[in-house]
Amino acid sequence: xxxxxxxxxxxxxxxxxxxKITKAMELVAAAKxxxxxxxxxxxRSYADLAWNTVLHLVKxxxxxxxxxxxxxxxxxNVLIVLISTNRGLCGSFNxxxxxxxxxxxxxxxxxxxxxxxxxxxxxGRNEARRHHLNxxxxxxxxDITQSSTIINPITHMVVKDFIARxxxxxxVAYTDFASSLQQQPHVRQLLPIVxxxxxxxxxxxxxxxxxxxxxxxxxxxxxxxEPSRKEILNSFLPRLVEIQIFQxxxxxxxxxxxxxxxxxxxxxxxxxxxxxxxxxxYNQARQAGITAEIAExxxxxxxxx
Amino acid sequence: MKEIxxxxxxxxxxxxxxxISQVSLSTTTGQITILPQHxxxxxxxxxxxxxxxxxxxxxxxxAISGGFVEVLPDQVVVLVDTAERAxxxxxxxxxxxxxxxxxxxxTKVVDAKEFAFLTAxxxxxxxxxxxxxxxxxxxxxxxxxx
Lengths: 305, 146
Fold this sequence. Notes:
heterodimer, A: alpha/beta, Pyruvate Kinase, Chain: A, domain 1, five-stranded mixed sheet, 6 helices, B: alpha+beta, ATP Synthase, domain 1, five-stranded antiparallel sheet, globular, disordered C terminus, membrane (chain B), ATPsynth_dsu/esu_N (chain B), CF(1) (chain B), cell membrane (chain B)
């Protein structure tokens, strides 16, 4: 067989192998996605209820004196917790997220503010370094975050630095999971806790799933606190921060696996198209070869006669 | 009889969401019982049991670890790290878990943080055991009655 057809055949084989791999990865990502999505949906109600509790408290209390609600007049130092992935092959997932972060830094007066970043996930760290962001700390991320204890060190660091007035604002950057086809990079304010946080920074996309707890807080007398107001706030608010970071991590994970599944599906489709094209080219080359051979043979017999 | 909505939520799932007529919880300052039309309250919960009474006389038991409770005019929201209904707890496994935790505590205690974690663990397992046993006892009793 002539060289041309053999080459094409080899390429078809290699593309077929690649397709098998991407197909398998798609299936794995789909399975992981199902798990991650189930988790994120389960945690949403907890996060929402915790958030509602804070909203109720804020309406009833004078919170300005508590360190978690303290708004600095002048914002100088900002901390961003960047939640990304450990593995690539998920399309432009991490790129988009970091771009969003860079954009939002640019948007908020880069000259007067110093922005530090804590990264969670190695791909985001690399991308952030490429953009020359100031990385303060990097936490190792697991593929699937099992429980909120894993993010405890992050929460601890964030809360400690905020209370020590090292930072005036803390944000979390993550990818919001809207559906398996749609994910959005999102930057959300963590601290200080602002009741209008949601309106101000875009709104988490699961708004419509949310049960609307419409309680008219004006109607009832003040909250009773046991043991005391201070103790409750001091133990509840760090927990709230933790829950919000945890929720962001879960949202990111669900988004990551969805993005990867989609990327792998596109890759498989592209491989399929490529195989079709190559097969066509192969058949043409083969036919050309046969025609050439026949022409040679008949030319040979014609010369003999 | 008046009723109030009770929601028990953990980061993993919604454990309980029903209308009830009374609920008892263990807070850091002691056991409290909440009836409908309770004054709005926010309190911290310790590892302990939650017992729920429905409009009839049926009861439900649950084991929880630490968390918070928020009482609003029309609902009670319980936010906890873990919560299990009594019938979900495997008594033997709970006992084993408690023993394991105690063993670790005896053999290798590294620092104060770990100590606190393990004691909390033991406390949690003890509550689970207690709730599981109570449930079992009651289960047998009702079995005899019927």
